[in-house]
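ERR on first pass: missing label on line 2. Operator R.T. fixed the label and resubmitted. Corrected input:
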Amino acid sequence: MVTLNDYLIASGLLFTIGFAGVLLRRNIIIIFMALELMLNAANLSLIGFSRYNVHNNLPDYNGQVLVFFIITVAAAEVTVGLAIIVALFRARQTTHVEDINTLKF
Amino acid sequence: MNAAPWIILFSPLIAVFVIVLITERAKKLSSYISVAAIAISFVFTLGVFAGPDGSAGITWIDLGSFKVTIGYLINDLTRLMLLVVTGVGLLIHIYSIGYMSHDKGRSRYFAGLSLFTFSMLGIVLSNNFIMMFIFWELVGVSSYLLIGHWFYRPAPPDAANKAFLATRIGDFGFMLGILLVWLGSGTVSFDELSRHWQTIGLNQVYMTVAALLIFCGAIGKSAQFPLHVWLPDAMEGPTPVSALIHAATMVAAGVFMLARTFFLFQNSLTALTVVLWIGLLTSLLAALMATQQDDIKRILAYSTLSQLGLMISAVGLGVPQAGMFHLFTHACFKALLFLGAGSVIHSLHDEQNIWQMGGLRSKMPITFWTFLAGTLALIACPPFAGFWSKDAILASASNNIPAFIVIALITFLTAYYMSRLFVVAFLGEPRTDKAKHAHESPPVMTGPLILLAIPSCILGFPAIASIFIKVPEHEGSAAGAVTVSLLAFAAGLLAGFFLYRGKNKDEIDIPLFEHKFYIDEFYAGLIKWTQDLLAKISGFIDRWVIDGGIVRGLGGVTWGLGFVLRFLQIGNLQAYAFLFGAGVVLLIYFILFGAK
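pass 2 clean. output:
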């Protein structure tokens, strides 16, 4: 029997993997992918909550609708993010975060 | 409602508006309008003088417990004062036509004169404290305008400022006094106050304080010690202004006000004693200062101070009628003296130093004889007007030996410095070319001199004076008072005459008197000292608290915080992400486990 906890543990693992990717990887495109992973981890937990929050034999669809919104927004965000990365690459000829560090004192 | 008091009051005000708004360019017309306005007031004053007592008014402010009317109160006091203001005022207006005939600012001058007349009549007619206070301030404003008439010279604007500020100090006390009276009694109307003030059952100390604060108004306006310093400087104004405002009427307003509000002082021995000795001190100091002055107008100014002090002390002796009697005669002969001095100054082309004059007797006969009449009236020579009124004051002091001696001394000094002035300025040989070429003034100036000389001669006789005022009865040793007064007068006259006859310069030199007891210097030093101290304190606060503490402190703290925090900006994206994540973990920790 798959319980809510199993979903949440899977979501937590996914989130941790994503966060670790953001922290540890050097290529900005990989970091970007790891970010998407974190978003999907959140989506997964939302789905899990929705599935197990039953009223009148129906799951709570609010959570699922919210997931659709997140997917849509994430798609939009990906376009903007990728566009920025392309612009960055044109300006600096690199996708490594160690080389993009001038935003400081 | 009787219309006459309103016509008397507003006719000069209308003249002000007409002159300022319409006829400013037509200088001659402006002066005639101003004279016509006060002539109208004078004619209606004669009507009021013959008429009955009365009082009427309209409510101006009604705030429940606080009620102010604009109205008039006519009794013996009002009638006498109206006659002085419009009568002497009319003559001085006429005289001004001649005196100011070459002045470019004549329209402004006459507008100021009419504004002053309006304000002064307002004081005289007002039936409550608030209305009186408003006109009291208006008088100050018009006095300021007229002293500063020649504003392009260096001295007059300073003198105007000094006069305005010095009287303001007194007026502040006056205002507080009015507030205390209102708080104590709930009314500001003279009529109600005079009937009820003593029976309300107020604390004796409260009543004394209220009376003394009211007296502060008189100290300022009537130039009593320690606020007397403005009056001699006010002589920078045109001479007719000195005659009208700073001799005959405005400075007498303080005495009038004390007589009007005498019910406040009646039962307070402390207040009366203070009033008496302030008056006597002013009178004595001013008389001493007058003995060493060289400017003809300044001598007269100090003499005015001295006489005002006598009037005030008469109020302090509990006989305000004697003070009003002296005010009445003084208004005539002092206006005469000032106008005579103005006639001399005018014909000597603005020469005011008495040592530059001399031998004017044959050159200016009318001025000479009328000035002589004024001098004799001032130094209390019988049977001239001043003798009777000063005698009334002296007689009312006959139970108070120290006051009696001081007044006798003042009588002596008055005779001394006035005979010095007269001997030096008018007798002997002309000392300068200006004096050699002096000529008599035009009739428009000598006419008022003659018209003022007549009352200066005859006004004092009890039979004539009693038409205008209830002459106070002598009590006790009237004969003694007369003897002392005559002795003091004769001694002063002889001393002044023989010490200064045929002299070309002042051989008596008393720097203390010449420098007016250094009171001006003391005030200047005091003000400088307090201002320096205040400036130092403010400078310290500005430099160290405002600038150093708040402005630079705030800037410094922000800058320092930024300096420390900018080391956190390392520029590494992943480090930021790590810090962010760590922060979230910390938050979650506190939410889950920290709330207990």
